Amino acid sequence: MRAYTKEDLARLANDASSVVSYGVPVNVKRSPAGLAEGYLDPWVLESLKTGLEKRVFRKSLKATWTSFEKNNIKVRYWKIEVPDHQTKKPAYVNIHGGGWSAGHATKDSDALRTLAEQAGAVVFDLEYSLSPQARFPAAVEECYAALKHIYTNSENLGIDATRITVGGGSAGGNLAAVMALLARDEKIPMIASQVLLVPVLLLQQNGYPEFFIDDVCFKIASEKETCFHRPPNPANEPTDSEMIANYLENLSQADDFRASPILARDFRGLPPALIITAEFDRMRPHGEFYASQLASAGVPVRVVRYQGLLPDSIAKFGIVPQAEDKTCEIIKLIRNGL
């Protein structure tokens, strides 16, 4: 059972509230609980107490594990699909988060299984080697090799090669953005759209002068300030030194667009992007600033910010209503595009 109602989901789906961030419209979806800005959502608070026990998906799906090595690069993924005779389905290629040092591919995610059923898609959940045992650019190379394999073998995998969406959360959002840049640079039309969920997009230790945080960007209720702190300003403060040190072989690699997509020289010709951010995510400006870079280059982009949320991607499906609404946003993108 879900921990919320259909009415809660309807409120989120119909919320058309909007602000402008870095010159780009942002659809701000407010908590169905009716909280003001600066307060953590009650479903999130409850989930912090109870963990991730609730399961809502019951349909039996087919899940197949693939693992091989080519040119000394590992290719590993779960393939999740509704067992039927349809071919030429759209595909969703998911890259998990975890700061490049944690997390794993799974066949049991309620959100991914719902994507497979309701979007009529074949879902691929990629595995990649983790830091610090495998440092940059190992994760990039493995995810890109898996994506190329899926694209070149689309007919055998039962998918439409022109309808592949690549997405991921946090570090996975970083890798998804990099996949789009690499495919564009190689002139391989294998990504129809990209989904960046609470992405981490800048790893430079000394920031990026054009990228700033406005003083009113983060509003934290006074009684919550002891629990939640304002994020570092990316114009002159590091993103997360421990995470970066674990991922990169040396700090100079942070200047590589494959580590920091915000530093790419050109954003023209990239696939349409759905970028999802969270009010209480210290990396929230990363996604919203990147949206401005894409929009300025003529790339179609939709930005959704969820009020009251921590930087969770879609793992709390069934527990936090916003996690299911994020999944619905991705389903609409896969079905209809932006």
Please name the defining characteristics of this protein.
single chain, 20% strand, alpha/beta, 10 strands, globular, 338 residues, 9 helices
Strand order of the largest sheet: 1-2-10-9-8-7-5-6-4-3
Structural class: alpha/beta
Gyration radius from CA atoms, angstroms: 19 Å
Number of helices: 9
Which spans have pLDDT < 50 for at least 5 consecutive residues?
Answer: none
What's the helical proportion of residues?
25-40%
Q: Sheet bearing the most strands, described?
A: 10 strands, mixed
Task: Report mean pLDDT, rounded to a whole number.
Answer: 89
Shape: globular
Tell me the distance between the termini: 31 Å
List how many beta strands DSSP finds: 10
Percentage of residues in DSSP E strands = 15-25%
- Give, in order, the helices and strands: HEEHEEEHEHHEHEHEHEH
Description:
The chain is an alpha/beta fold. The chain has 9 helices and 10 strands. It has helices spanning 6-13, 42-50, 110-118, 138-152, 154-157, 171-185, 241-247, 284-296, 321-336; strands at 18-21, 24-29, 62-70, 73-81, 89-95, 122-127, 159-169, 193-197, 273-278, 301-306. A 10-stranded mixed sheet has the order 1-2-10-9-8-7-5-6-4-3, with helices on both faces. Helix 7 links the parallel strand 8 and strand 9. Helix 1 (6-13) crosses helix 9 (321-336), helix 3 packs parallel to helix 9 and helix 4 packs across helix 6. The protein is globular, with a radius of gyration of 19 Å. The relative contact order is 0.19.
Can you lay out the helices and strands and say which pair or pack?
Elements: H1 6-13, E1 18-21, E2 24-29, H2 42-50, E3 62-70, E4 73-81, E5 89-95, H3 110-118, E6 122-127, H4 138-152, H5 154-157, E7 159-169, H6 171-185, E8 193-197, H7 241-247, E9 273-278, H8 284-296, E10 301-306, H9 321-336
Parallel strand pairs: 2-10, 5-6, 5-7, 7-8, 8-9, 9-10
Antiparallel strand pairs: 1-2, 3-4, 4-6
Helix pairs in contact: 1-9, 3-9, 4-6
